[in-house]
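User: what does the whole thing look like in 3D?
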Amino acid sequence: MSIEVVNITKSYKNFTALENVNLHIPEGELVALLGPSGSGKTTLLRLIAGLEQAQQGSILFNGEDNTNRDVRERKVGFVFQHYALFRHMNIFDNIAFGLTVRSRKTRPSKEEIREKVHSLLRLVQLEGLAHRYPSQLSGGQRQRVALARALAVEPKFLLLDEPFGALDTKVRQELRRWLRHLHGKLGLTILFVTHDQEEAMELADRVVVMNEGRVEQVGSPEEIYLKPANPFVYSFLGRVNLFRGRIQNGRIKLGEAEFTAEQGVSEGPAIGYMRPHDAEVSLHPPQSAAATAVQAHIERITLLGPLVRLELRRLDTKEVFEAEMGRQRFLELLVEEGDVVYVTLNNLSIYVESELQSVPTPALTPVHVTV
Amino acid sequence: MSIEVVNITKSYKNFTALENVNLHIPEGELVALLGPSGSGKTTLLRLIAGLEQAQQGSILFNGEDNTNRDVRERKVGFVFQHYALFRHMNIFDNIAFGLTVRSRKTRPSKEEIREKVHSLLRLVQLEGLAHRYPSQLSGGQRQRVALARALAVEPKFLLLDEPFGALDTKVRQELRRWLRHLHGKLGLTILFVTHDQEEAMELADRVVVMNEGRVEQVGSPEEIYLKPANPFVYSFLGRVNLFRGRIQNGRIKLGEAEFTAEQGVSEGPAIGYMRPHDAEVSLHPPQSAAATAVQAHIERITLLGPLVRLELRRLDTKEVFEAEMGRQRFLELLVEEGDVVYVTLNNLSIYVESELQSVPTPALTPVHVTV
Amino acid sequence: SAASQGTGTNGSGEAGGSQTVELLNVSYDPTREFYQEVNAEFAQEWKAKTGQTLNVKQSHGGSGKQSRSVIDGLEADVVTLALAYDIDAIAEQGLIAADWQKKLPENSSPYTSTIVFLVRKGNPKQIKDWDDLVKPGISVITPNPKTSGGARWNYLAAWGYALKKNGGDEAKAKEFVGALFKNVPVLDSGARGSTTTFVERGIGDVLIAWENEAYLAVNELGKDKFEIVNPSLSILAEPPVTVVDKYAEKHKTKEVADAYLQFLYTKKGQEIAAKHYYRPRSAEVLKAHTPAFPEIEMFTIDELFGGWTKAQQTHFSDQGVFDQLYKP
Amino acid sequence: MKHVTEPAYVRWSLIAVAFLFLGLFLILPLIAVFTEAFKQGAGVFLAAIAEPETLSAVKLTLLVAAISVPLNVTFGIAAAWAIAKFSFRGKNVLLTLIDLPFAVSPVIAGLIFVLLFGSQGVAAPWLAALDLKIIFAVPGIVLATTFVTFPFVARELIPVMEAQGKDEEEAAVSLGASGWKTFWRVTLPNVKWGILYGVILCNARAMGEFGAVSVVSGHIRGMTNTLPLHVEILYNEYQFAAAFAVATLLAVLALVTLVLKSLIEWKTERKSKAEEDYYFDASGEKAG
Amino acid sequence: MRKSFLRRGFLPGFGMTMGYTIIYLSLLVLIPLSVLFLKATTMSWEQFVGTILDPRVIASIRVSILTSFFAACVNAVFGVLVAWVLTRYDFFGKRIIDGIVDLPFALPTAVGGIALTSIYAENGWIGQYLAEWGVKVAYTPIGIWVALTFIGLPFVVRTVQPVLQDWDLQMEEAAATLGATRFATFTRVILPHLLPAIITGFALAFARALGEYGSVVFISGNMPLKTEIVPLLIMTKLEQFDYAGATAIATVMLVASFVMLLLINYLQWRINKFDAAR
Ligand SMILES: Nc1ncnc2c1ncn2[C@@H]1O[C@H](COP(=O)(O)OP(=O)(O)OP(=O)(O)O)[C@@H](O)[C@H]1O
Ligand SMILES: Nc1ncnc2c1ncn2[C@@H]1O[C@H](COP(=O)(O)OP(=O)(O)OP(=O)(O)O)[C@@H](O)[C@H]1O
Ligand SMILES: [Mg+2]
Ligand SMILES: [Mg+2]
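Assistant: Here's the predicted 3D structure for the full assembly of 1636 residues, as structure tokens:
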């Protein structure tokens, strides 16, 4: 089932949690809602589920207006961040709950319920734990029970609020894989919340980046990583280096490095963003004539499994920044802490402060760069 | 000051939290205590600080027995996981606490205390917040206050329990850098707890891996990543692929891939571990005569910033595994989801089940492999 | 310090070294105003006689409870209780000489009272005598004889009436009193509680009460609402008084305590008693107040029940006659 | 939240039922007390309150509260420290013993002190030798009151201290603070509201206790009558208006303490709310 | 190990506070209460049993237990309702209502009893209307029940309220997303969770009601075998100077209360443990 969020605004007393949010989620997709704490992710999810009411806007399921429909009629599967399992019921009863509370007419027979619960237990790989209580399960197991409970009522789609937030890295990786598998198998529309960019990138078909109650960007993981719509998205998705400089005479100066700005850019302070893996480290000055490289001193080398991260300090501006490379490349380089290297700044994104000063945080507008 | 933990065993009622732990922490090092939840990290830290008493074993500071010494006399700086700031005191009073509670004889004058607190506030970059209360600070700021408070009493070393556990990724990265900086500046011995392997790898000079109350391995980040002492450490530090197979006639067979085992290995089931970045993906079968490559089907491609992760399914055993490579390498490869590729399994670690079956989880012993 | 003042008397009386003497009079509930006046009068007299300032402290409560307090250590110099039995209980503990009742005239009871009926104005149920109380449909208010001393007087009065009427037939008397208590809808724990129930809550057609209580109720709570009915036969209630020898000796107040009780027998004392609706022993004073104290034929405890100890034993102990006849 | 709560008509009828119940069982009696008190006009009311015996009863009541409340506060703090900050065998039994006075009939509460300190009592010989008076004097009243109000502060404080955890104490000790200093400078400031709350309840009950005190008081006018006893005496003397007037003193006292308590709760609530707010803000700031 | 017993970890003061607690508890509660047992032992076993099994004692125990039980039941139901309304809804006067709940603690019980009697007697504010319907409240077991409901109310409200305040609203939301009606959510999800607190409040109210004297004597009518409560019977025994009999009954009541409280504390401890395991 597709979900359409139209022009939703939601405020609490004196605080606007969501402002004019529009979102389309096509049927069968696995969509991640990504954003920092307090950006309104949970609020949006709860609005879609009908646990909250918006001041304005509407929510359509398959084109049908659901804005004023009761939670109970929306047939949404909702998995809460802390699972919200019923503590005094065992796993079986937890999963069966949604079926046993139906009115007598629509309630399946005891036998059918048993069947159903056991098939769900098999699905979430928890056969044999039916008689345990939630307190006797590990976090990952609880998470799966919460999922099974939501699936028992055969929802039209699934909403998950930080499903793996409270879990160990190891368990998390496992469950992620399992969720994707489940998605493939059931073909459900799934919308899940996370504030972990790696999780969003790895799991989702489509990522919605939120900030301060607004949707900043929607796109495939690759799109938003490679073509961030603005500095917020840029720095929220993965590590980023930040260089301060100026635009002067159509040239962008970041310390000793210089780039050509596009035509008609006003002069003034500018900020350059660059991903650490776009920093090209070499022992010798680059061949190219353009001054896109700077000299830097290696302060620390960290081996991070497949990656190696160098912490560098520019000799010109004394700014600290990072470079990342594959292990192989690092082994070829043969550098040590304390060495001085040349770093070419590739794929820089330059932003200048917008002239519109009415907004609280200085709005940055992108500047196209040619080397 | 160096810390020596000798043969420590600590049990709660019917549960052994630490079993025969030995550990040496040389002066001036920054050591990470890494392990899954419940592995006894906090317990060990509290024992060293004297907040808990062991049933057995001793703890030496600079070779001097401290086992039965009171917390107050140990001169340990302890930073609690949830900071444990004094809620009803402002930041200044929090930091000054350790000095003001001294007996009159050893207590510095008011003026001296003020000096000291302000220099600490400068150190943790919180000048100007001296009169705020803990509730008026963000998580990261609280963390730094807790540190300053611990440093005020000029401890001989610093113990930190999951110092960045409760913080956002962004803030976390910042504080990590800051802590390393501090360590360099003060030259203190620092022992910190974490369950995030990346944090341990990035920050520490030396990593102690714990599991179920035992120390599994101690070493530099590189050592434990590259030469894990056992499968637990292997799989706890970074992602790992796991292949099941057999040893037969001195050959290790993992599906269609074959390797030569060392001499005198008993026959039977074996497990091969491999890091995703050790999987070499190519479109063509490798040149080498050895059968170290398998064919696999690309099920999913995930772009993770600097890295690209492929989820692969072996055509022979249908096992799913992962391969990771740099973005550059991926772009060179030109593969898509659904393609079939050849994957060379490099740097495999093979373990066979130990004949000693007394231990609860089957003990695995490593087997040396030659291609 | 408050503690030692509380019950003790600092009098070093006889020699007059100190000018202040304290007495503690432990009494029962309805005597407060009466003793307040007695105290003032006597203190004046005592001052004139000895030059000492006398300060009489009063304690009031249920008679049995007060007696128990004295037994348990409430250091009363004099006790002025509702029935001899309560003082006997104190005497049993050796605090008072066993023959205490002989020490003062008239059985140590300077004033008496009797049991009468209080009915609503106009006497709508036409209650004239005891026999009317056992009629079906009549609602009688009296407290619980097991907890209230006053109630025991009520009970014994009814018993005595039935006994006399039936020529001493105990079984008939038992039946009569049983029938009477069948008509009781509320058993308050004390006499004042019963009065409140009757007066304030408007429950019951007749309240059995002491004469002085009945007068007080009428005067305090409504002359226009109630009237008093005198039965043909009633009991002579003799509230006794005595000095608690042990404590008086300890406080060295024996002399003043004796004088205090003697004062009750003087004309002045008797006048005050009559003013508070207690029947004075003095014939002269009684005559002066005749309209208030009409002639009623009365019997005493000793005559019909062989004294309080015996009456208590037979009627009010656990499994006693009251427990047997009371079947609500 | 709207969608998950009850429909408005259910909500309002529940509120109405609650009001009806509280009205019948709590508010009406309170109103009854006040109307009775003023039945004969403000003059009688004021006279009853200004009467010397009332005043001495007020004094005694305040004195008793002033002794027994601090005693129970000290005990409550000590017990809460031992129970909340340490684990030991038999905690349940200890907690139950602390609860016990809740379940002892006030009559019995008074009786046990009579049995102990009365002149027939177990301790009588010593008391006689020392010429000490416990019952039918202020000490007995204090004892009985203390007994009856025994659990209030401890019961209030134990959960608060337990919820507070040991973190801050651990931090203080690791910074070199001694036990006393930790207690005074860290624990106490953190539970001060809990203590106050306990004090208020304990005080209300101490001033209002009737049964137990009645047994041990001796009812000596102007000396050992507390306010509740004085109310009874006035009532028994058919001075209903005066009795209720004095009772309103107690009711007002109760209401004042309750208002105080509400104020305290409101303050703590506001404080924790402010904290929460800040958490949200802080996390927002972190992200930015 | 001795050392560790005394020190009990890092915090000081265990010995001192524990010692003080035990001493104070002993002096003020245990020793005085033990006198009760001592006194009861002055009776022979036959006498003791005879006292307890006396029909009047049995009847009063029945009255006490039944009225206390029903009062506690009503308090359990309405206590939950009041706690629910106070924690969940916003309405005018909420704070005042919240404050007034503690009134029965503060008002002298006798005043409460008198006030209730004046309301529920046949000529009282409410009693007169009830009388028209033929319902008598004061001077019947219903009156006792009214008084005991009055004094027991704060117990249930104050034990349930904090639990409701801590209650995770998400569990209700979860039930709603699973299609449960409000009623089903309450009975099947919320109530089971509140149950321990309700039982605790119930038991405290029950224990307190069993011992209540001051307010009941005014409204009960004190009719032996009908509306006589146990504490009144104890008083009666005392009036007859029968200390042993009084203490015998008191002892039985005390032991019953103690066992019940122990049960509650055990129950709570179990639940806390269960929660801690989460
Ligand atoms: N009931 C409420 N009353 C007032 N403000 C609220 C309420 N619920 C949420 N908010 C505010 O709305 C904003 C968005 O909250 P929301 O829970 O949707 O954030 P989130 O993106 O889910 O954050 P997190 O990652 O921390 O869960 C926050 O700033 C929060 O303070
Ligand atoms: N007071 C206690 N009583 C009983 N068991 C305890 C106690 N404290 C800790 N444990 C147990 O000891 C084990 C180790 O606990 P510890 O707190 O040291 O783990 P940890 O490694 O710090 O875990 P985490 O990462 O979750 O903080 C856990 O299984 C825990 O359940
Ligand atoms: Mg959220
Ligand atoms: Mg820990």
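In plain terms: The interface with chain B takes residues 36-37, 168-170, 173, 180, 195-198, 201-202, 221-222, 225, 235-239, 275-277, 300, 302-307, 309, 311, 320, 324-329 of chain A (CB under 8 Å). The CA atoms of residues 245 and 254 of chain A lie 4 Å apart.
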